[in-house]
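wait is this the right file?? whatever heres the structure
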């Protein structure tokens, strides 16, 4: 059996690619797999048609749309096609004809898939609020944590902890409130991702001790987790929240949002905050830095929680799904 993983163009973003190339590490031990990248990064009608016709020629025994390009379901043999849905948050920002067209391409198209996989309960509910899917047509399979992230215990720096923040420019990553919450707390804020002008100015105003890096390799990102004391992820919205389980896998305490899906993914192994409340974020950091017993309890719960996101566990779930399709 041959499986083709269809990825959006690399210029659109690497997050989905990173997740499913990890999935493929496990799946290719069981099945023959290929990875196909769409040729056009744009999302206008000519680009969608070009990508669709390209994908049609690349079909194998099972086609797996890894995310984003749900419109490929109008071009592929849907009886042998799986699509993974990460989120449809962009839909909520649209209006008028653009919103109607986006729904046809990215939401209504899901009814054509043989199997729809959601990465979280939150992503599933988003879609089911918009369309009806047969109960046997969909399931939840979470993202796996890469085997590159392994437990690396580190003595906590309670004098000046290093706080790792992934995502510089994206407003939903909530860097601005983090900067404000950390004002007058002794720490070093390590920011991965390009900074916006607004956040650069805020860092100066709050006199934050920080450093910034971007365009890192996967190996360098793993090192950032290992070198930090705390992982900061009080995001305003996500389809899943990879930094939560990556931090847990390395053995770092994680700060994340007390909203779905982050609080679900964390599984009791993170300090939960109200992401729009600067005081809530500040209080969390003060508790973490001053309370060693609390800190260690959360870390151990995180190590326990991340077991269910191990690659072997997720690979087995996908292997079962693929076998079901072939047997039909």
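ok assuming it is, sequence goes like this
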């Amino acid at each position: 059996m041959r499986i083709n993983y269809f990825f959006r163009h690399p210029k659109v973003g690497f997050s989905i690619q990173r997740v499913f190339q990890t999935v493929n590490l496990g799946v290719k031990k069981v099945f023959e797999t290929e990875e196909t990248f769409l040729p056009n990064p744009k999302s206008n009608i000519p680009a969608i048609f070009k990508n669709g016709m390209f994908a049609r020629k690349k079909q194998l025994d099972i086609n797996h749309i890894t995310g984003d390009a749900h419109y490929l379901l109008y071009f592929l043999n849907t009886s042998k096609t799986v699509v993974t849905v990460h989120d449809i948050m962009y839909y909520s920002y649209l209006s008028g004809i653009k919103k109607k067209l986006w729904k046809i391409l990215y939401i209504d198209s899901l009814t054509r898939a043989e199997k729809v996989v959601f990465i979280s309960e939150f992503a599933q509910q988003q879609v089911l609020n918009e369309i009806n899917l047969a109960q046997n047509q969909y399931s939840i399979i979470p993202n796996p944590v890469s085997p590159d992230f392994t437990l690396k215990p580190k003595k906590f720096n309670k004098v000046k902890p290093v706080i790792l923040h992934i995502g510089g420019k994206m407003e939903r990553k909530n860097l601005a409130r983090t900067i404000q919450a950390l004002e007058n707390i002794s720490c070093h804020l390590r920011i991965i991702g390009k900074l916006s002008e607004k956040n650069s100015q805020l860092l100066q105003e709050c006199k934050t001790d920080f450093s910034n890096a971007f365009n890192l390799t996967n190996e360098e990102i793993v090192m950032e987790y290992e070198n930090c004391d705390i992982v900061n992820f009080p995001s305003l919205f996500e389809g899943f929240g990879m930094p939560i389980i990556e931090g847990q896998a390395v053995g770092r305490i994680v700060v994340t949002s007390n909203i779905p899906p982050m609080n679900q993914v964390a599984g009791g192994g993170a300090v939960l905050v109200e992401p729009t409340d600067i005081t809530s974020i500040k209080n969390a950091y003060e508790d973490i830095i001053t309370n060693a017993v609390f800190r260690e309890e959360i870390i151990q719960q995180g190590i326990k929680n991340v077991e269910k996101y191990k690659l072997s566990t997720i690979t087995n779930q996908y292997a079962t799904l693929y076998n079901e399709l072939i047997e039909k």
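Residues 162-308 form a domain with the Rossmann fold fold (CATH 3.40.50.2000). so i think its the right one actually
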